[in-house]
Amino acid sequence: MEQGQSSTPPIAPPGEDKTVAIVAYLTLIGFIIAIILNGQKKTALGAFHLRQMLKIIITGFVGAIAAWLTVFIFIGIVLVPVFYIFMFIMWIMGLIAAANGEQKPTLLLGKQYQEWFKNAFN
């Protein structure tokens, strides 16, 4: 870590609206509504959490397909519930960070998705 950088995630300025960040985590419809809201009033916090929710959606979709493809094998019977529990934990972590106004990446590729989709939702 470089000098002058802290390990704590950036926190939204006191007056910054957390609505987009929170709504982004409220189902796929909430994600779409958050995209529309962010288009009207762009905030760094909103864009960050839109990218995090995009990560959860993509990871969930790809992971669910992979998990269900293994359902006929014994490991699939264990893998599917564990995968959904993990996805739920990531979702909760993102929602809590959004409610606290933090730009804290979720588990499993959170930072990478910020980099890959850095121009999305800006």
Structure at a glance:
By secondary structure, the chain is mainly alpha-helical.
List keywords for this structure.
122 residues; mainly alpha; 65% helix
Report on this model:
The chain is mainly alpha-helical. The chain has one domain. Helix content is 65%, strand content 0%. The protein has 5 helices and no strands. The longest helix is centred in the last third of the chain and has 27 residues. 23% of the residues are buried. The mean pLDDT is 81.
Structural class: mainly alpha
Portion in strands: under 5%
Q: What's the count of strands?
A: 0
What is the helix fraction of residues, given as a range? 55-70%
Shape: elongated
Low-confidence stretches: none
How far the N terminus sits from the C terminus, by CA atoms, comes to 27 Å
The biggest beta sheet reads: none
Radius of gyration: 16 Å
Give the integer mean of the pLDDT values: 81
Give the domain tally: 1
- Order of helix and strand elements from N to C terminus: HHHHH
User: How many helix segments?
Assistant: 5
Q: Topology of this protein?
A:
Blueprint: H1 19-23, H2 27-40, H3 44-69, H4 74-100, H5 110-116
Helix pairs in contact: 2-3, 3-4
